[in-house]
Amino acid sequence: MSSYHSSGRLSDNPMAIEAWFMDESREDKRLPHHRSPPEFVSLDYLAELGVLYWHLNPKDYENDEELQKIREDRGYNYMDLLDLCPEKVQNYEEKLKNFYTEHIHGDEEIRYCLEGSGYFDVRDKNDRWIRIWINAGDLIVLPAGIYHRFTLNTSNYIKLMRLFVGEPVWRAFNRPQEEHPARKEYIKSLVEKVGVALEAH
């Protein structure tokens, strides 16, 4: 497991993802939105929320045995690639607005960053926003039923691999969704504290 400073900040290990509690500012959503002082969140805390993380080699994703093993172990048999930037996506602003609207999915959301970077925001048990900064090599899994959203940072570019179990389902259910089966199951898993910490590789 990556080491942490006493503040909870991830160490200078380049293979560890950074996450922090967000401020309430209405500034540009693509900015980091740190609190003052910053409050960093550990991988263990993310794992308690059901968020899983691996660091892989994005330059060799086509031949990466570790990625292949993750896909086989977790049943991710569908894959596609998405270049998300103004030049390559029709209705770019509208799509980003939809991605940044708080929602859940009925299935896991699995994203592997191959180039660029962006932010996944997730709600914790106390409904606080946690911002997760993903960069090239970061693969994260958001559990079904967790409230979340996504935005690019100021670089306005990310290349993502999207993975699914079976056929891809793109449907988002915007908050509130307390009666959705996936949301109920997620809340139940939090209460039962089944989150298992996985090592960051």
What does this structure look like?
This protein has one domain (18-191): Jelly Rolls (Sandwich). 17% of the residues lie in helices and 29% in strands. It has four helices and ten strands; from the N terminus they run E-H-E-H-E-H-E-E-E-E-E-E-E-H. The strands form two sheets. Strands 1, 2, 3, 5, 6, 7, 8 and 9 form an eight-stranded antiparallel sheet that branches. A hairpin with a 5-residue loop joins strand 5 and strand 6. It is globular. Residues 1-12 and 194-201 have low confidence and may be disordered. Ni(2+) binds at residues 103, 105, 109, 148. Keywords: Amino-acid biosynthesis, Cytoplasm, Dioxygenase, Iron, Metal-binding, Methionine biosynthesis, Nickel, Nucleus, Oxidoreductase. One of its GO terms (cellular component) is plasma membrane.
Quick rundown:
The chain contains four helices and ten strands, in the order βαβαβαβββββββα. With about 200 residues, it is of the alpha+beta class.
